[in-house]
């Protein structure tokens, strides 16, 4: 079944000569979409010097298009080893390296890949020794990895925390990130009373500090703080608020740091809550929604960003209450990108009106919209404001309200956008996330602005390494 069998065999001979401790076999690999394929693979240890000398266990899967496609690489920890999630390793032990990103035959080889792997592991050790009390928890993760790499198709997580109590109408929300925004989301969701349980997943290093400590001191009902991904099990909505606080110099570096951060979060979250809706509040929300969609392999309907929801609510309030334009307010939306490039738009249209009446109505809307946008300027999006918006969205999802919100969603196919980008558009939300996109009034200027945003976002995404 290998297209380039002779080339593959020759390369594996070279690997065996260089690393004689590796053992080779043919096993079934399960891909993210559930499809399976019998693939050659080998496992063994590679020597790494990190103060002391360590033997790091790995397993490499050779795709049937090898050597023109890179291998799929995993750590293979034992029950007393924990995975150190970092720049090159995610929570499930999958290994990501520049060498894999830039794979090109004949320049790229498996021996070259392993050499880079060793070099990167010597900068950041990927495994650590677990205490005996943690070994039981580790066995669940190893079981999941085994299901991916040993051909088992049933990948439903049975969390100890979840049990039967999370079945039925139990509404559980997890907020990932214990910064100001994460805590604001927890408080707003708790105040709204939409969830039976709210988990705050604190991924920061060290003991609980600041707001997290205060949440523990003043213990809110049905709010749990945890550093363990398994605490998120069976959540119906997972809110992502984390942002990298690295020393990146350029805007692209900042976003890449966020992508690297998400690589260690999204696979674990999607494992423990396989039927959840991912609600992205991290910046930039359009790009991070796209990244979450790609890393989770969830259907597009179950990955949305907070997008223009807050600005839309403010916009409608200004039109209705401050400018006394009640008729316009209910059909007004802020769409496109968050920030300076957001666009006012409308979802109602009088199809019976003649061209003159249509133009007059459009001019009237434009004048009122410009006044409303001026008032909207400078209001910013404080953590507690975004938290209220997140609570509003989770309320619509958990209660299956079928309410229309302006949220970041996959915009491909809308307004002649052909690239995979997320933009804010009016969408009906329910239990399974985005149910349907609401048709916008046709306006060439709005379409032009959306296409421009889509183009710049797509160009940025092309520079990122997922």
TrEMBL record:
Taxonomy, superkingdom: Eukaryota
Chain's gene name: Uevld
Full protein name: UEVLD enzyme
Coiled coil regions in record: none
InterPro entries xref list: L-lactate/malate_DH, Lactate/malate_DH_C, Lactate/malate_DH_N, Lactate_DH/Glyco_Ohase_4_C, NAD(P)-bd_dom_sf, UBQ-conjugating_enzyme/RWD, UEV_N
Primary role: Interconverts simultaneously and stereospecifically pyruvate and lactate with concomitant interconversion of NADH and NAD(+).
Reactions catalysed: (S)-lactate + NAD(+) = pyruvate + NADH + H(+)
Any one Pfam family match given in the protein's UniProt record, by short name: Ldh_1_C
Occurrences of domain UEV (ranges): 1-131
Gene3D superfamilies per record: Lactate dehydrogenase/glycoside hydrolase, family 4, C-terminal, NAD(P)-binding Rossmann-like Domain, Ubiquitin Conjugating Enzyme
One of the record's GO molecular function terms: L-lactate dehydrogenase (NAD+) activity
Species whose genome carries this gene: Anseranas semipalmata (Magpie goose)
GO BP terms in the entry: lactate metabolic process; protein transport
Stored SUPFAM superfamilies: LDH C-terminal domain-like, NAD(P)-binding Rossmann-fold domains, UBC-like
